[in-house]
Design brief:
This protein is α/β, with parallel strands linked by helices. Helices cover 34% and strands 20% of the residues. The chain folds into 2 domains: 138 residues, Rossmann fold; 219 residues, Dihydrodipicolinate Reductase, domain 2. This is Gfo/Idh/MocA family oxidoreductase.
Length: 397
Amino acid sequence: MHSAAKKIRMGFVGGGEGSFIARAHRQAAGLDGRFELVCGAFSRDRQNNQRTGATLGLAADRCYDDWRALLTREAALPAEQRMQLLVVVTPNHLHAPIASQALSDGFHVFSEKPAALNLAQVQGLHSVVASSKRVYALAHTYLGYAMVWQAREMVASGVIGRVRKVFVEYPQGWLSTDVAGQGNKQAGWRDDPAQSGIGGCIGDIGTHAFSLAEFVAGQSIQFISAMLGSHVAGRQLDDDVAMLFKMTEGASGVLLASQVCAGEENPLKIRVYGDKGGLEWRQEQPASLIHRPLNEPMRILRSGVGQPWLCADASRRMRLPAGHPEGYLEAMANLYGDLAEAILGGTEDHQAPGVPGIETGLRGMAFIETAIANHLGNEKWSEIPGQLTGVANHEHG
């Protein structure tokens, strides 16, 4: 158990009644054990805000009407009382303004992705992060899974040889009908360019597939040829994405992301093939990593504390013996754990090794904008901006 005296005081913007992702964040922080919730501005609806705070055991005077009031009044509190970390779980258009102001006011930030509405905003936020001397983290939760780290290490150590082919896909089915028109708030803001940005599905889950491919393969996606579409009448943003890609060290690949695959839940999957074999990982069966050596029988590696064949980065991210399933909350808790280490340890560069940060935010937004431009244009291949190419693994050591 971590010492109670070391707990990091945490506040939330967004995440009122009915928010799945805010609840997941609070549960994940609780799993790590080094965070305590002290304040929040959970909803623009005053009654929702106060009810949420009361349900979470907060005093009424630490439930603020909006994020600006939260930052101003928390900054005025004595150092031993004020919030240290702000968790941002709002719609996309507020991510960058809130994060930028919070960092400037001296608070660490853990933001839902994407980092901002567009690349120019992320570049501005990058400058704020660099000058703030505070930790900025981005919630690419799937990069917290232990067996994703195991796959990455096996690729890096040459187990499957030189990487040739990467397939990554993320099909969902929840937007197969007009659920926004039926009153679903989560679907509603995601289809509003003013709140979501220029990308729909590509920003919501396509960026997860993109970052997973770069992270596991250990090289950056450089060129893409993309097709985006919308299959539901009246929908403003894409709900379906398919693309080919080329990576910086010669691998080629296919990325699929769709939210109109009726019947699907969250089967994010990646397959990486080298000249000596292949690896496969599926988010819905996260404890298993399939290894297919060339001319040898397939084997399945299973997660669990104490498994001697697993790498140190994978073992460090496990809490339970083999056969006791760990999943999405534990993966997010791993991000919170690395974030806690950076905040409590006071790292010199104020980055949290192991946690996606502003560089991942830059890559993701460049990916979104390049893919959409390619889809709308006449070029067969479009290059993700050169100054960003190659930074995908910077934050992961």
